[in-house]
Every structure is written in C-alpha cells, then in structure tokens.
C-alpha cells in the first residue's frame, strides 16, 4: 500500500501542477501578446518616421551645399551656367579706355591728355604701322583703319584688300582732320 499511495500522490500532484501552470501561462501569454500587439506597430511607425526624417535632413544639406557653391565662385571651382544663373553680373563695371578719366575740366574744353595706349583704343592710330594717325578711308567698304602712306602701299603694292573686312579696295580717299 505504500507504493500505491505514493503513485497516487505523485499523480495528483502532477495533475495539480499541470492544471495550475496552463492557467498562469495563459494569463501571462495573453498579457504579453497584448503588449506586443500594441508596442510593435508603434515602434515600426517611429522607426519609419526617423528614417524619413534622416532622408529629408540629407536632402536639405545637399541643397544647401549646392546653394553655397553657386554663391561663391571664388573658391576656385568653375561655375556651371544654368538657366537660373543671372545673365548679367550684379555689379556693372564700366571700362573707359582712352578717355579722360578724372579730368573733368579738361573734358569740357576738349583738351584731354592722351597716351599711346589711349589712342589705340580710341581708334586714332594706324593699324598697320602704329606710328601715324588714321587719315584715310577705303571705298567701297568705308573703313578708316590706316594712315594715307600705308593705304597707298596696300592699294599699289600689296593685295588691295581692306585690313578690317578683306573686301577689295577700289579707291583710297584722304581725310582732312583738323
């Protein structure tokens, strides 16, 4: 009897533990799955939003770097022409070659002092010899580019073409400049 009582006692204890364990595990699993069902989708949404935020931040950073490159061409990089670039510079730089710069009183009287480089830019010196003043023009093109000596040499000895437009010269007329 001792042996049978022991077997019954063990069997009953196993049934008791088996009956109480699934109830506890069911309640624990139910609460755990409920928690997982609520938290996991929220974590997924938060992770997706963080990823999208990082992509937007990278795009903004990239756009700022392109904007800084366009605004500072002095950094040694070649500026690429696009439709959005200005056609004209922001500041207009005026060049005045061969004019009376800063001599306002002489400008009115017509007595501007000029140097050789100023005469070149004003179109007063012969383009052939760079020695004398231009004082003739070619017919039919009408260009006034040489002195009378160089013009005669072109018509009589050389190719008889205008040094500016390469058109055939029929005649040379002398200008009398006061």
Descriptive overview:
This protein is mostly helical and 178 residues long. Among the domains are: 97-125, no CATH class; 127-178, Herpes Virus-1, CATH 3.30.40. The protein is built from four helices and two strands. It has helices at 2-71, 104-109, 116-122, 148-156, and strands spanning 136-139, 171-174. The chain has a two-stranded antiparallel sheet. The radius of gyration is 49 Å and the shape is rod-shaped. The model is unreliable at 17-21 and 95-114 (pLDDT under 50).
Strand count, sense and barrel status of the largest sheet are: 2 strands, antiparallel
The proportion of strand residues reads under 5%
* Shape descriptor: rod-shaped
Number of helical runs? 4
Sheet with the most strands: spatial strand order: 1-2
Look at the structure and name the CATH superfamily of one domain.
Zinc/RING finger domain, C3HC4 (zinc finger)
CATH class assignment of one domain: Alpha Beta
Question: What is the succession of H and E elements?
Answer: HHHEHE
Give the helix/strand class.
mainly alpha
Instruction: Give the termini separation.
Output: 154 Å
CATH topology of one domain: Herpes Virus-1
Low-confidence stretches: 17-21, 95-114
Secondary-structure topology with pairs:
Blueprint (H helix, E strand, L loop, with lengths): L1 H70 L32 H6 L6 H7 L13 E4 L8 H9 L14 E4 L4
Antiparallel strand pairs: 1-2
Organism: Oldenlandia corymbosa var. corymbosa
Keywords: Membrane, Metal-binding, Transmembrane, Transmembrane helix, Zinc, Zinc-finger
Protein name: OLC1v1011543C10
């Amino acid at each position: 009897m001792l042996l049978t009582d022991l077997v019954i006692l063990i069997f009953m204890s196993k049934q008791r533990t088996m009956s109480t364990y699934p109830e506890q595990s069911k309640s624990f699993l139910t609460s755990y799955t409920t928690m997982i069902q609520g938290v996991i989708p929220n974590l997924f949404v938060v992770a997706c939003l963080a990823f999208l935020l990082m992509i937007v931040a990278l795009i903004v950073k990239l756009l700022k770097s392109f904007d800084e490159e366009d605004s500072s061409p002095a950094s040694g990089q070649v500026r690429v022409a696009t439709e959005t670039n200005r056609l004209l510079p922001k500041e207009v730089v005026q060049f005045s070659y061969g004019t009376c710069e800063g001599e306002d009183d002489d400008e009115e009287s017509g007595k501007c002092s000029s140097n050789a480089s100023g005469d070149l830019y004003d179109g007063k010196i012969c383009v052939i010899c760079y020695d004398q003043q231009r004082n003739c023009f070619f017919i039919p093109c009408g260009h006034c580019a040489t002195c009378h000596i160089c013009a005669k040499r072109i018509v009589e000895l050389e190719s008889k073409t205008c040094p500016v437009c390469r058109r055939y010269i029929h005649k040379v007329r002398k200008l009398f400049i006061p």
